Inverse folding.
């Protein structure tokens, strides 16, 4: 089992940001208007969501350990309830986002995500929030972000008719476990984190078992 430590963690984090940029560069203007595995969202909406989430991570860090996310997690609700609440938050933030193109959203996301990575190392072991008896550190929250970037890369790849698998899925699993105690591996949810019904994305036949576990846990493919 891989350890979630700053060196490999931040390498995987930056790789996720980079691959999102590489995939986004392959979208045509028409493709940005096309559907994604998050059935209610166009590709441009997914780009806007990434921008919102990256900014949210800054807010949560600024206000840790008493952020709005910390208050939500402190209630120790079920995975399904938390997923629904976060989905409503995601939809509201996306609706309030200023109009911009897919490439503009992605550029803003990449700048925000990279700035977040620059902030976390000095406070890696400090508490970020708590779920039940589990304290999630700032480093653990980086694990949640890292997994999210790679999972959304899979969403973008699927919108292009491609498959995506990260180079080190076992590192992402370690990050997920460090940052997502409310959604344990093996307990898939009925809604994807984007808030839409699970779509028709299919992982390639040679997908790594660790990567498949993350696709299941995040609700992207059914068990």
């Amino acid at each position: 089992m891989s350890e979630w430590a700053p060196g490999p963690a931040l390498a995987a984090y930056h790789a996720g940001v980079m691959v999102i940029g590489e995939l986004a560069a392959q979208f045509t203007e028409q493709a940005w208007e096309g559907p994604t595995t998050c059935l209610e969202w166009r590709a441009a909406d997914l780009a806007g969501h990434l921008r919102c989430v990256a900014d949210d991570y800054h807010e949560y860090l600024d206000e840790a350990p008493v952020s709005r996310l910390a208050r939500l997690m402190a209630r120790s609700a079920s995975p399904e309830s938390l997923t629904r609440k976060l989905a409503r938050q995601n939809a509201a933030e996306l609706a309030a986002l200023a109009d911009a193109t897919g490439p503009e959203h992605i550029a803003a996301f990449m700048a925000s995500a990279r700035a977040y990575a620059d902030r976390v190392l000095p406070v890696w072991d400090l508490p970020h929030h708590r779920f039940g008896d589990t304290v999630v550190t700032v480093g653990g929250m980086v694990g949640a972000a890292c997994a999210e970037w790679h999972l959304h890369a899979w969403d973008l790849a699927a919108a292009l008719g491609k498959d995506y698998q990260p180079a080190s899925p076992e590192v992402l699993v370690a990050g997920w476990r460090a940052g997502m105690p409310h959604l344990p591996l093996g307990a898939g949810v009925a809604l994807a984190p984007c808030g839409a019904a699970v779509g028709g994305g299919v992982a390639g036949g040679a997908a790594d078992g660790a990567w498949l576990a993350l696709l299941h846990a995040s609700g992207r493919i059914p068990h």
